[in-house]
Amino acid sequence: xxxxxxxxxxxxxxxxxxxxxxxxxxxxxxxxxxxxxxxxxxxxxxxxxxxxxxxxxxxxxxxxxxxxxxxxxxxxxxxxxxxxxxxxxxxxxxxxxxxxxxxxxxxxxxxxxxxxxxxxxxxxxxxxxxxxxxxxxxxxxxxxxxxxxxxxxxxxxxxxxxxxxxxxxxxxxxxxxxxxxxxxxxxxxxxxxxxxxxxxxxxxxxxxxxxxxxxxxxxxxxxxxxxxxxxxxxxxxxxxxxxxxxxxxxxxxxxxxxxxxxxxxxxxxxxxxxxxxxxxxxxxxxxxxxxxxxxxxxxxxxxxxxxxxxxxxxxxxxxx
Length: 320
Fold this sequence. Notes:
Number of helices: 13
Strand content: 5-15%
Structural class: alpha/beta
Strand order of the largest sheet: 2-5-10-1-11
CATH architecture of the largest domain: 3-Layer(aba) Sandwich
Distance between the termini: 36 Å
Largest sheet: 5 strands, parallel
Radius of gyration: 24 Å
Helix content: 25-40%
Order of helices and strands: HEHEHEHEHEHEHEEEEHEHHHHH
Number of domains: 2
């Protein structure tokens, strides 16, 4: 039996409690129930044999995997699929924008905070300059810096939408990718003892040698995504293994819906999938828009076609 799907009605509706809060789709579950945190199967990822082999080439060659494709083709999700299947822990995520610099991915140093705390400590305790706070408490490794920590197994690093970054960023990455190391000058200048610094995605700390250099033992699994908004330098491209993801066809979409929502839902969604493919010819759409629509239709609530059509708005404002 279906139920009224409008939890919020607006107008002069009296405040009321929701008797049964909607169950989240698998891809929108967080906390301990998040598939990305699960140690078991997690979210499924559909990939062709050809694309699977390209991923494996990058793993064997210890080279970055440059994944290009239109929005919604599964570029970022691929990094999570690799991390889950190979038990490599949570993905280290480095989103890139026009202001992103190499240093943002390596580490951050809060010099102002350390100076302030040192001043407060001296006033409170009558201490001297020798009582400065531990520098490691004011250093945090970024996603790239954390991925380059020495370990026996690699971490997965997702550098998301590199094509949105500064034109020099790909070339700046080359040295780090080739050498597998970087220096923290603030530690190198001290040259006294090892320092324990904070790392991305954990409350734990990592021990950095007294020379201030972070050197990996095994190259991380680097997945770089691009929406194809601009070209990368040839020197950068030749150091990457390249994977171009295409929009899934009707058969593949049916498989994706089935993998996420079950066989019965997949069979009932054939008509909606065909309509989605037809719409995709005239506007830019992403696969997760189809999944959202199928999920809403199959959840037991009464949603008419005019409402569902609003989920299929083009990602390109020029199409509106």
